[in-house]
Design goal:
Blueprint: H1 2-22, E1 41-42, E2 51-56, E3 59-72, E4 76-89, E5 92-108, E6 111-124, E7 129-135, E8 142-149, E9 152-159, E10 174-179, E11 182-188, E12 194-196, H2 205-217
Antiparallel strand pairs: 1-12, 2-3, 3-4, 4-5, 5-6, 6-7, 7-8, 8-9, 9-10, 10-11, 11-12
């Protein structure tokens, strides 16, 4: 009987510990001060699947994505990622994008050396483009890039700092989008992606939304 009670107590303690861990809030990215008063919106539907339907409040469509990793002789590793989505309304498909990215690394004496650093290129049917590249850093997999749509240009930079913490994560936890050096929006990738974007009248609202959705869909090798 004592053994049964002990096992029951241990099971209850384990369940309580798991419940406590799962109730902890997810880590949140640190936001620029310029975006502190902006209310984020959720990027719904993408989850962990390879295809499906996405929605961001007033926008919706279909998406697909993938990622492949190949190793050669246990030393050379190549990663290929891809993603695409369409934007639809009552008249059908109104825009779409295809993104492709790759990197190659060499492992030597337990150290990974970038042979071809991570890079991404996205092209929209509207003519917009997004280019993203890795930045060499000893402890973080930083990414920087540019989104262009006509005369509109957004600077894109990965975020690794966490709210309320002096620590930084190696893989991007999100991205900040800036215009002329001033932050105008952000994307958080942890959990259900969240998007901070300008007001509806802003010329940056739709371009920023397009770029953020593409980045939310891409499976960055740094996060694997």
């Amino acid at each position: 009987m004592c053994r049964a009670r002990l096992e029951s107590w241990a099971a209850a303690l384990a369940a309580a510990w798991v419940a406590g861990c799962t109730s902890l809030p997810a880590a949140q990215m640190a936001l620029p001060a310029e975006l502190a008063s902006v209310e984020p919106v959720a990027v719904r539907g993408i989850g962990g699947g390879r295809s499906g339907d996405w929605r961001i409040v007033d926008l919706q469509g279909r998406f697909d994505r993938g990622a492949d990793r190949i190793e050669w002789l246990g030393r050379v590793q190549t990663d290929h990622v891809g993603a695409g989505y369409t934007v639809v309304d009552g008249s059908g498909v109104v825009d779409g994008v295809r993104c492709r990215g790759r990197q190659a690394t060499l492992t030597w004496a337990a150290v990974e050396v970038p042979v071809a650093p991570y890079g991404v290129e996205c092209r929209w049917t509207s003519g917009a483009e997004l280019r993203l590249a890795a930045v060499v850093h000893p402890t973080r997999d930083e990414r920087v890039g540019t989104y262009r749509r006509g005369d509109l240009v957004l600077e894109v930079r990965s975020v690794h700092a966490l709210q309320g913490s002096a620590l930084a994560v190696a893989a991007p936890i999100g991205y900040v989008f800036s215009a002329g050096g001033r932050p105008v929006g952000a994307l958080e990738l942890n959990g259900t992606p969240r998007l901070w974007r300008p007001e509806a009248a802003s010329p940056w609202r739709r371009p920023l939304t397009d770029a953020a959705l593409a980045l939310a869909l891409l499976w960055d090798p740094a996060s694997r």
